[in-house]
Amino acid sequence: MRLEDMIFISVDDHVVESPDMFDGRMPAKYADQAPRIVRTDRGDDVWVFDGKEIPNIGLNAVAGRPKEEYGIDPTSFEEMRPGCYDVHERVKDMSAGGVLASMNFPSFPSFSGRLFLDTADKDMALAVVRAYNDWHIDGWCGAYPERFIPMAIPVLWDPELTAAEIHRVAEKGCRSLTFTENPAMLGLPSFHSDHWDPMFRALVETGSILNIHLGSSGQLAITAPDAPMDVMITLQPMNICMAAADLLWSRVIKEHPDLRIALSEGGSGWIPYFMDRLDRTYDMHHTWTGQHFDEPPSEVFKKHFLTCFITDPIGLKLREEIGIENICWEMDYPHSDSSWPDAPEEFHAMCEKYGVTDAEINAISHENAMNWYGFDPFSIRPREQCTVGALRAEVAGHDVSVRSFDTGRFEKSVPDLAELQARATA
Amino acid sequence: MRLEDMIFISVDDHVVESPDMFDGRMPAKYADQAPRIVRTDRGDDVWVFDGKEIPNIGLNAVAGRPKEEYGIDPTSFEEMRPGCYDVHERVKDMSAGGVLASMNFPSFPSFSGRLFLDTADKDMALAVVRAYNDWHIDGWCGAYPERFIPMAIPVLWDPELTAAEIHRVAEKGCRSLTFTENPAMLGLPSFHSDHWDPMFRALVETGSILNIHLGSSGQLAITAPDAPMDVMITLQPMNICMAAADLLWSRVIKEHPDLRIALSEGGSGWIPYFMDRLDRTYDMHHTWTGQHFDEPPSEVFKKHFLTCFITDPIGLKLREEIGIENICWEMDYPHSDSSWPDAPEEFHAMCEKYGVTDAEINAISHENAMNWYGFDPFSIRPREQCTVGALRAEVAGHDVSVRSFDTGRFEKSVPDLAELQARATA
Question: What radius of gyration, in Å, describes the C-alpha atoms of chain B?
Fold first, then answer.
């Protein structure tokens, strides 16, 4: 398949929330207590909520910066590409990057809305969660419904309220929930308790997906305090592997046989080994551990779990073992692991290398995302206008050059599609 | 290749130390303080040392028991197959299992000799470590030098003494050291300090291998206190993955370019994904993290790390990506993940499935172990007497039936070689 004919839906990107997000969305009595942006004496923008200051408005939002600066988080909106927080600019960046549609994880509330967990006034916190979801669904995604898969944050302290919120947002067409990879790490009941059953039931009743993003337990795999950053970066998918094992062997899967879970930013290449390990563990140990499945655990895994990758050569090579329908693509804009704006070129080159068929490419690049999330952009935008070529043509003049915030220097010109493709297929 | 013509060397098995191991091996002044076996009022055998009682004489030493009983650790020598602790019986079990030679990790001192770390009398503790190594090398392995790759335990509290011990045992022909996967988890300086340099230098000077067994940091990946055992079992290789990342990015590899490390019981199937992740991490992040390698980190990994597997279909499928010379085979006798006595049948079936060539089979089943560990059994025992067929013929009457210690019932007859092979190739 030609690169320009591919269609991309990314199931893992990140929104940096805009300062006006809560305007008009909070009940009058709590309007003054909504999270708000404050500029500090140092010139930084911070979110302020419930006596807490959250400095990372755009944690790792480094799209468009040179790699040498990836370790420095932007601390003000001016330091970020507007595409991080302005939906109109985001859509232009997506088009320039050849991406039709995207699902966006939150930034300042954490991936699972953990920021609101310890708020004493639970009624106020609930109002904030609902306002967040209204903004995300109606404001951000609603501005371009063919370009975004909406996703809600949970009411983390109350599974019944989370269930109610799942139903409420489903009415608006949102059938995706972000959650923590391990509630036990947050001091909440684990996946092995029955605490979360109302949430799981609501997900199944509404056909919604549970999304577990790496790092959403608030913990990363750290080997030693003096270990270099590279160790932690390399090991990030380990957290997701732990979450996958935790859920696969838990009562959750057995009690909620229609539940579906996405392992966000977890990669795919480790899945075949993991499935071998599941089956081996079952074969060698289930008679004394007391586990029971009616089929091999690897088959159970395929029925329940969606995997995704940014770039993952081995994951693509082993696509049959993973299951073609169990793989989605993601871009991770605007974080430092993203290949924006030439992510499609990277995917295209991998597909050439591993002889991926057109049907497989379509499944991984967009059809699986449409099927798992019940998302149909083609009903709004004709399919032929959704390709990399069509999208890039629409924003031909859009500036995607890399800019150093240290020097102000532009270091890379607007990518030329033909040149990018020549490079990718060289 | 026919199963009976294969030759197997296992780089990861376990010895249960025999009660008389310290007899005549301790300096006279410390003879009374050597670890000793005591039978408790409950009828259990325990090691007693330095005021501590270590009940797990044979932690997970369940070879020859039905799988239903795998969760119950034997607490007395009578509850174990004699092959766990009697070298003459062990060699018969190895022959019946078709295995020529084996490297044995310790049991009661822990994989890294951690038991002796907190002993107040360091001089006495050093005498115990030396006596342990003398017993292991001269007593256990020395009884059948063509059947064992000797491996020493370190003087964990002192890198200089460890270096001296590495040189001392190398004089006896032992060029293998077991160590912890993460000293920082034991409260010791991490791999990122220069603390361990004397040990690394001694390993390189003597051509010895550093062996890092999963679980040797004293920690396993646990998701929640109420998680089922299956989660922990599935995730065991995660610890080794953390150790591999920790060491790969550490100064150790850069400062000691000839150091070689074995990831014991870590599996191989996850390595290609891990190497992709290493290269991606380097490509995306090294300019700000400050890492530098002269070649891709995946190539650095291949030069330094040996992997091994018990059974690992994906690892065998991806043998070229891992590197044929970077894969060894292991049996894990007498632990519950072992396939003894029909481990060769399992390996043979996997090789048939993935079209593994004879040269590749020989490399993985025994030649890589001989090369990495500088071990040459054929100089003592002619090669044609080292095959599965030859070894099993020697012990045709040896009882390898599975016996329940609850019922005393024998549940499986002595395997018939022809029947086993028919099953394996069915």
Answer: 21
> What's the complex ipTM?
0.93
Kindly write down the DSSP assignment for every residue of B200-212, as one continuous string: HHHHHHHTPEEEE
Strand partners, A264: A213
Please list every residue in chain A whose beta carbon sits closer than 8 Å to the beta carbon of residue B68: 287-288
Considering CB atoms only, which of A231, A288, A315 is closest to B67? A288
One-letter-per-residue 3-state SS of B293-340: CCCCHHHHHHHHEEEEECCCHHHHHCHHHHCHHHEEECCCCCCCCCCC
CA neighbor of A280 nearest in space, from B398, B39, B67:
B67
Question: pLDDT band at residue A416, thresholds of 50, 70 and 90?
Answer: very low
Give the distance from residue A278's alpha carbon to the nearest chain B alpha carbon, in angstroms: 6
**CB–CB of B267 and A285 under 8 A?**
no
What are the CA-CA distances from residue B118 to residues B50, B162, B188 (Å)?
A: 9, 16, 12
Nearest Cβ partner for A285 among B233, B242, B248: B233
Query: Residue A99: beta bridge partners?
Result: A8
Enumerate residues 6+ apart whose C-beta is below 8 A from A28: none
Which amino acid appears at position B390 of this protein?
A
β-bridge mates for residue A263, sequence order? A212, A307
Q: Which of A314, A336, A405 to mutate to test the interface with B (most CBs of B within 10 A)?
A: A314
Q: Tell me whether residues B224 and A272 touch, CB distance under 8 A.
A: no
pLDDT in tens, B290-320: 999 999 999 999 999 999 999 999 999 999 9
Interchain CB distance below 8 Å, A245 and B229: no
What is the tens place of the pLDDT at every residue in A119-141?
999 999 999 999 999 999 999 99
Please say whether the beta carbons of B148 and B100 come within 8 A.
Answer: no
Residue of B nearest to A267 (CA): B273
Yes or no, beta carbons of B273 and A315 under 8 Å apart: yes
Q: Which two tokens stand for residue A274?
A: 């993991």
Number of continuous H segments (helices) and E segments (strands) in chain A: 15, 11
Out of B339-343, B400-404, B417-421, least confident range: B417-421
Asked whether residue B410 carries a pLDDT value surpassing 60, the answer given is: no
- Comparing C-alpha atoms, which of B97, B174, B102, B156 is closest to residue B339? B97
3-state secondary structure of A320: helix
